[in-house]
């Protein structure tokens, strides 16, 4: 199974600070069809996860553009340009290139 | 607007089975596979498997092949997950999430295994 390693496990930030989360895969996530099925989710406390970024860098409709995704192959990054209070929660990367689909362990974003 | 309405919390005795439903609306039910995801208390997300409602085909993570059974009823736009031979390890919240990139999520169903 593909292992997704997220770092850091915990991130402390102040409002307005820019932060990045890394997601490294044990295998390339480039599918034979040319797509890379690496996505980012946010789970706020007590809520269901929500999709932020899909296919590495595509911003889901309604998600603020302070969120951005980048990367290729095995190394991926989620960046938040100017953290806001509503961004607090746990961020997960998830891959859908190889069965079984797998999630990273999560990165908890807290207020400093 | 896509909506996913999951059934309410369940309490199951060890060794028994429970069946959770996920009723979809706001999109064509057969357009997306339906994923199911497990979240144990205080833990991360774990993919259980998916079902293609149009064809009934399924794929499971290895550890759930004997635990979970996924079905779908296209007449009612409802997907189901049945969990069998319950143990304390099955106590968790279970989510349905259609689409190839988890664009939509149900509200989750808490399953508690207790005697």
Describe the structure.
The complex is a heterodimer of chains A (112) and B (115). Chain A has strands at 4-7, 10-13, 18-25, 38-43, 50-54, 58-59, 67-72, 75-81, 89-95, 102-103, 107-111. The radius of gyration of chain A is 13 Å and the shape is globular. With 112 residues, chain A is an all-beta fold. The mean pLDDT of chain B is 96. Chain B has strands at 3-6, 10-12, 18-25, 34-39, 46-51, 58-60, 68-73, 78-83, 92-98, 109-113. Chain B is globular and about 40 Å long. The termini of chain B are far apart. In chain B, 42% of the residues are buried. Chain B has 115 residues and is mainly beta. The A-B interface holds A 1, 37, 39, 41, 43, 48-51, 54-55, 60, 90, 92, 94, 96, 99-106 and B 35, 44-47, 49-50, 59-62, 95, 97, 100-108.
> Radius of gyration of chain B, rounded?
13 Å
Helical content of chain A stands at: under 10%
Shape summary of chain A: globular
Biggest sheet record of chain B: 6 strands, mixed
The total count of helices of chain A amounts to 0
Order of helices and strands of chain A: EEEEEEEEEEE
Q: What is the subunit organization of this protein? A: heterodimer
> Which value, in Å, is the CA radius of gyration of chain A?
13 Å
């Amino acid at each position: 199974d593909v292992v997704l390693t997220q770092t850091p496990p915990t991130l402390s930030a102040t409002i307005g600070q820019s932060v990045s989360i890394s997601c490294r895969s044990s295998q390339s996530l480039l599918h034979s069809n040319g797509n890379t099925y690496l996505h980012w989710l946010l789970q706020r406390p007590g809520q269901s996860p929500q999709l932020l970024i899909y296919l590495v860098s595509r911003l889901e409709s309604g998600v603020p553009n302070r969120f951005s995704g980048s990367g290729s192959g095995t190394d991926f990054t989620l960046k938040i340009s100017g953290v806001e209070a509503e961004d607090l929660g746990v961020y997960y990367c998830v891959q859908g290139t190889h069965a079984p689909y797998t999630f990273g362990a999560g990165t908890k974003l807290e207020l400093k | 607007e896509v909506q996913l309405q999951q059934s309410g919390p369940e309490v199951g005795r060890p060794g028994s089975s429970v069946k959770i439903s996920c009723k979809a609306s706001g999109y064509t039910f057969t357009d997306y596979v339906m994923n199911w995801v497990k979240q144990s208390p205080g833990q991360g997300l774990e993919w259980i498997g998916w079902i293609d409602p149009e064809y009934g085909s399924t794929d499971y993570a290895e550890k759930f092949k004997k635990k979970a059974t996924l079905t779908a009823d296209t007449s009612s736009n409802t997907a189901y997950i049945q969990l069998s031979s319950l143990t304390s390890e099955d106590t968790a919240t279970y989510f349905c999430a259609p689409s190839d990139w988890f664009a939509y999520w149900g509200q989750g169903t808490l399953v508690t295994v207790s005697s």
